[in-house]
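Structure (tokenized):
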């Protein structure tokens, strides 16, 4: 059976509705206490490739549950009055995730242009996986 809306259409919608933060701007935001970098990649990716130091790991599969204060899985970081900058490996999952969180009503959600790969390739700081 064919899908009626493919991933490319979903990405186009997300890119049109969600703020994409250019790499240079994201590098300038690194360390800003009002910004939380959210790594949505799979734990195996974090173990293999590392992550942006200080980022909070929220696996894509649990994201909606961790963001909703009524969920038993809610994580308090998502209740903070901060900007949430999501990233994945290449910016596809983060764009879709940011759109979902925006649709849920979470304010100040954006995602990293080019994802972790672009961050790492540009010489952005990378560290080992941390708890989160």
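Design, position by position:
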């Amino acid at each position: 059976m064919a899908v009626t809306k493919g991933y490319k259409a979903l990405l186009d919608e997300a890119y049109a509705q969600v703020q994409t933060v250019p790499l240079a701007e994201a590098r300038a935001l690194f360390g800003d206490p009002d910004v939380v970098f959210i790594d949505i990649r799979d734990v195996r990716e974090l173990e293999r490739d590392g992550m942006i130091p200080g980022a909070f790991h929220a696996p894509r599969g649990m994201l909606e549950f961790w963001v909703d204060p009524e969920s038993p899985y809610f994580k308090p970081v998502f209740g903070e009055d901060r900007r949430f900058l999501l990233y994945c490996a290449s910016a596809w999952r983060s764009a879709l995730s940011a759109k979902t969180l925006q649709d849920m009503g979470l304010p100040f959600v954006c995602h990293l242009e080019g994802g972790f790969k672009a961050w790492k390739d540009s010489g952005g700081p990378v560290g080992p996986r941390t708890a989160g």
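Reviewer-requested clarification: Strands lie at 19-21, 35-39, 56-57, 83-87, 109-112. DSSP finds six helices and five strands in the chain.
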